[in-house]
Design goal:
By secondary structure, the chain is an alpha/beta fold. 43% of the residues lie in helices and 14% in strands. The two termini are 24 Å apart.
Length: 241
């Protein structure tokens, strides 16, 4: 019964968000703050999932453009990670998303960037355009560097695109971790705590393409360690509840 009630409530909420959001996007198509607007609405649904969100933002992260690197676990990211998306931020997603009825059109209209990953030349062209948007429009870009959902397998290896883009644009990279959320069960009343933590920026000024691998490995190690710490903290908070 709880599963049905939650599913219906989420469906109604998403329908309302899509209707109101579509009107807003039509009035200001691809505006720099459209994604932040949707992110706030989606994260507000976390209590419906029975999840308490704890969001920690880095005090060292300023208002300058950057590349946000977020871990990608499952479909619940849309209700958890979105709580940390700042203004002036767009996300990078697969071009195939554009063909999803309703969601794909709104995803593009809200200002997000679509990349054709299976076409190497097109992918590089998209990354070059992304660099220009970061510089010209003072935009930050939210990227899932794993490229696919981890589904509880920890932090998967990173793809290089985000690092090439950050170095080409000369902007810092800001890791954002969400603690384990694979335990979320819509048929359970209390799904505990998910901690979202934004780490301090990592500068890329002075780096070039030859530094991509080392930078990727260093950030992956730091994010993996932080994820493990967040998982332990969230588990401890759930045991005390």
């Amino acid at each position: 019964m709880l599963l049905i009630a939650r599913s219906l409530l989420l469906a109604l909420l998403l329908l309302l968000v899509f209707v109101v959001g579509s009107l807003a996007c039509l009035l200001r198509p691809r505006h720099r703050d459209n994604v932040h607007m949707f992110a706030r609405w989606f994260s507000a649904a976390a209590p419906i999932l029975g999840v308490k969100l704890i969001v920690r933002r880095s005090t060292a992260a300023g208002s300058e453009p950057c590349i946000y690197l977020a871990n990608h676990q499952n479909n619940y990211d849309i209700f958890t990670h979105t709580a940390a998306v700042p203004r002036g931020t767009v996300s990078l997603g697969k071009k195939s998303l554009a063909w999803m009825p309703l969601f794909g059109q709104i995803y593009w209209l809200s200002g997000n960037i679509l990349i054709e990953r299976n076409n190497r030349s097109r992918a590089f062209e998209t990354m070059a355009n992304t660099v220009r948007k970061i510089k010209d429009k003072c935009l930050s870009v939210w990227i899932f560097p794993e490229g696919t959902r981890s589904r509880g397998r920890g932090l998967l290896p990173f793809k290089a695109g985000a690092f090439h883009t950050a170095i080409a644009a000369g902007v810092p990279m800001v890791p954002v971790l969400a603690s384990n959320q694979c335990h979320i069960n819509l048929n359970r009343w209390d799904n505990g705590v998910v901690i979202i933590e934004m780490m301090d920026p990592i500068e890329t000024q002075g780096l070039d393409r030859s530094h991509v691998k080392a930078l990727s490995e260093r950030i992956h190690a730091a994010m993996a360690a932080k994820l493990e710490a967040l998982n332990q903290e969230a588990a401890s908070l759930m045991q005390r509840a």
